Amino acid sequence: GNGTPLENAGSVEWTLPVVAPQEVIKVEFSVKVNENTTENVIKNTGTINVDGDDLETNEVQNPVNIKSVNPGNGNGVSVGDIVEYTIRHENYSTQNQKVVITDIVPTGTTYVADSATVTSDSIAATSISGISLGPIMWTFDEVKPGEVAEVTFKVKVTGTGIEEIENTGMLKVNNDPSIKTNPVINPIDPK
Fold first, then answer.
1. Residue 152 vs residues 6, 25, 28, 93, 121: alpha-carbon distances, Å
2. How far apart are CA 160 and CA 73, in angstroms?
3. Going residue by residue through the chain (191 aa), what tens digit of pLDDT does each one get?
């Protein structure tokens, strides 16, 4: 059957019929992320009650828009234009975090020399590597609660044989699996 939202509880509940041995029942739902969320990643777990015992599901993670582009996402660019990418991670936890941000110079562009930087006011990257050989990797050994790790780099549009430039970065926090940032896309304006 359909899930029933529980008022003000932030959860959905399904009551299922008796499940036969080896039978699989799948439940799923969608949510809309609030525009003003301060979270970098939306995490979700579930609970399954089997014969009175609560069992936790594995956690799933979905990134929120943590990557931006100048000019803005969806705006056209021309051959020769400079495009700047920014990836931002704020530590909303109560523990220090080791953060590694990785990004690749997208197809149809060339890296602008010396443009891979840290734009956070309060913290510095422990290292920035891979600039000449790619991918670019920023490592922050300690991002304290409330601090922001923000990085940028620039590329020049060459546009050889492509219609748009798409870029997605990667974010790794502590020993959690790496997650992809939201993709940003800029169409190349025809001449």
1. 42, 45, 37, 23, 13
2. 20
3. 455 656 556 778 887 778 888 888 777 777 777 666 666 677 778 888 888 888 888 777 666 657 788 888 888 899 999 999 999 888 878 889 999 999 999 988 999 998 988 887 667 788 788 776 668 999 999 999 888 899 999 999 997 778 999 999 999 999 988 888 888 999 998 76
Report pTM: 0.69
Question: Which residues does residue 179 pair with via DSSP β-bridges, in sequence order?
Answer: 171
Please report, to the nearest 10 degrees, the dihedral formed by the alpha carbons of residues 24, 51, 54, 20 taken in order: 0
Contact by Cβ (8 Å): 22, 36: no
End-to-end CA distance of the chain: 54
Three-state secondary structure call for residue 191? coil
